[in-house]
Amino acid sequence: MALNDILGTAVSGLAAAQAGLKAVSNNIANVGVTGYAREKSNISTQVVGGQVTGVTVGEAERVADRFLEAAVYRRAGDFGRAEVTSSYLDRLQALLGEPGAKSGLPARLDAINASAIAMTGGQNSAQTAAVFTGNVSDALSSMQQIRQDVSSLRGDVESEVGYSVDKINSLLKRIYDLNGTVSQATGLGRSASGAADQRMSAIEELSSMISVNVRDQPDGRVMIETTSGQMLLDNRLRQLDYPNRSAGTGSAQASYPDISIRFADKNGTMGALTGEKIESAAAGGKLGGLLDLRDRALPAFSEQMGVVFSGLSEALNSVSNANTTVPPPASMTGGQTGLIGTDRLGFTGKATFAVTKTDGTLLAKTEIDFDALGPGATVNDMVNAINAGLGGAATASFTNGVLRFGATAANTGVVIAQSSTTPSARAGVGVSQYFGMNDLVRSGTSSLVPTGFTGSDPHGFTTGQTAQVILRDASGLALTSYTLQPQTGGTMQDILNDLNNSKLGSYGSFSLDSRGRMQFQPAPGLSGAVLSMAADSTDRYGSGRTFSTLSGLNGLNSGLDTAEVRKDIAASPGQLPLARFDTSAAVGAKAMGAGDTRGATAFADKLSGNIDLGKDGVTTIGRFSSQLLGRAGLEASQAASRYDDADARKADAVNRRDSYSGVNIDEELSQMVVLQNSYSASARVMTTATQMYDTLLQMVR
């Protein structure tokens, strides 16, 4: 080998050792930097004319395994979703209080039952009645507070959805910019390790926000799409467009706008829509967890709280309407029913309308036989029958959806009582309860009873009024929606036909149950699908009762938000109906007496008995509420376990990645010794070659 070749080979060896030492120094300097992947010098044998002539030094290479990095991205998505879900469900659990706490809802419901039992003793009834009504009021306030807290929690989730969208957009833009840097360096044959490390860290953070698939491209770029297939980044930047993201603090709403994907320029300015959307928890990551909480978990809890209230109010009002007070009230004013005088009456059985003195002496009574009135009888027919039967001792009227019944003479009062053998009933409730004549609990937005409508009953809405119905699957994804547009003069069957023939009908069927509640039976494979009302401008005959409240499709429209103990009873608990009217008493005889607390036993029995909750089955109120809160606690516990598991799996994936691509000080120091020796050896070769040159020159002189 010529001396020039020896010198050239030695110089290349020195350059290779220098490149290696540079990589080692970078690795040692960044040993504690998160996301840094170690470098190694890229050297190869230099061959000229088939002969080895030293070593070629290339750009340093980034040591990384894309499969290990992809595993980190997947685990980060699972971790992001588990973390946010656990956090919010833990907050929900904190709002509900400790299991068994006296301030908890189950304890408050138990207190109602216990105070009802205490009233059966008949001792100090005014005081025990005050305790009972106070417990009812406390339970209502507790349910309302829980729903308000859940609504606030949902507003917090909505705010975080907006923040998450902004964060995702900034990460996508950063990755897009780094893509350009990496691609340019790759095209020029230069090292892009630094930019690639920054890009990996950004993708890892992005994958915790939304689950993504990452594809490496030949030019060094990466393509990113969601795990459900929406493209987020290729050669063009895309941004998420969410109308609510800049709305400030979030709020609970019936429905939310979709998150659309738009093309964007290099500055992130949004342009045309891509036609793709992010609509559900399938997005994964933190954003998917937030959407699941906002659209499924929290609304479902609020809806079930409404079901608890519906059952409780129906049970309490059933008893209070079967009871009366001594002395009886001079008049009764019912609640808003949504009916008009020409509506079908729809009652069976019998009820007594009576007038008594303040001491309970019967002055007049009339028994209304609803079966005898016939199936075509109207509300006006009942009013006429009452007035005719009482001969002026009391009068009944029905205007603007409200029944009124009052005595005409001073120092007299009115009573409505069920027949002991064939009690009146429509939709499973008596005539007094249906019209809300002697309710203990009232609501300004609900009649608190099923409607009892049949398909042939007029729906009472007018052309131009609408109700938007949204169907979501068990994950919270909006499958479809439909805007109901009832026509003037139509029937409930027309509404059923309209719904069943709409897009909603492709996912299940609508029908009326025996109590007039609208039911939706999901198609096979859609178990857990739920309906919600996004908007409703309907108004039955101007009564203020909407399709949402009358249909009973969703517990969110139960009337809980405006519920309260009837004002006169709350102000004077002695007005709580506890006495029972003797329907067999003759005129002039005592039909009821002071100190009668037989109705208290009925409160205790009703509260501990089963009640029909429609789509949620037949059960006791206490059992249903305990299951609801127990389920919330279980979900919070399971979410915490999933978070711990996701955290451990992510840590394992990161450890595996870092074990391969991370910096090991011992290895770097060992490599440094090798490179030092290599450098020294190459320098020794150069020294030897120089001496040989000198010797050769001296020989030829």
Mean pLDDT level? 89
Helix content: 40-55%
Q: Provide a count of the helices.
A: 15
Give a quick account of the main beta sheet: strands, pairing sense, barrel closure.
3 strands, antiparallel
Strand order of the largest sheet: 3-4-5
The radius of gyration over CA amounts to 39 Å
Shape: elongated
Q: What is the subunit organization of this protein?
A: single chain
Low-confidence stretches: none
Instruction: Report how far the terminal alpha carbons are from each other.
Output: 23 Å
Number-wise, the strands total 23
Description:
Among the domains are: 3-63 and 662-700, no CATH class; 138-142 and 306-449 and 559-615, no CATH class; 467-551, no CATH class. 45% of the residues lie in helices and 19% in strands. The protein contains 15 helices and 23 strands. It has helices at residues 3-29, 66-96, 105-119, 125-187, 193-209, 285-322, 370-373, 379-390, 431-434, 492-500, 547-551, 567-571, 598-608, 621-661, 665-700; strands at residues 39-48, 51-62, 212-216, 222-226, 231-233, 237-241, 259-264, 270-278, 331-333, 350-357, 362-369, 394-399, 402-407, 412-418, 441-443, 467-472, 478-484, 508-512, 518-522, 530-536, 563-565, 611-612, 618-619. The strands form 9 sheets. The protein has a 3-stranded antiparallel β-sheet with strand order 3-4-5. It has a 3-stranded antiparallel β-sheet with strand order 6-7-8. A 3-stranded antiparallel β-sheet has the order 9-13-12.
Task: Describe the secondary structure blueprint for this structure.
Elements: H1 3-29, E1 39-48, E2 51-62, H2 66-96, H3 105-119, H4 125-187, H5 193-209, E3 212-216, E4 222-226, E5 231-233, E6 237-241, E7 259-264, E8 270-278, H6 285-322, E9 331-333, E10 350-357, E11 362-369, H7 370-373, H8 379-390, E12 394-399, E13 402-407, E14 412-418, H9 431-434, E15 441-443, E16 467-472, E17 478-484, H10 492-500, E18 508-512, E19 518-522, E20 530-536, H11 547-551, E21 563-565, H12 567-571, H13 598-608, E22 611-612, E23 618-619, H14 621-661, H15 665-700
Antiparallel strand pairs: 1-2, 3-4, 4-5, 6-7, 7-8, 9-13, 10-11, 10-14, 12-13, 15-21, 16-17, 16-20, 18-19, 22-23
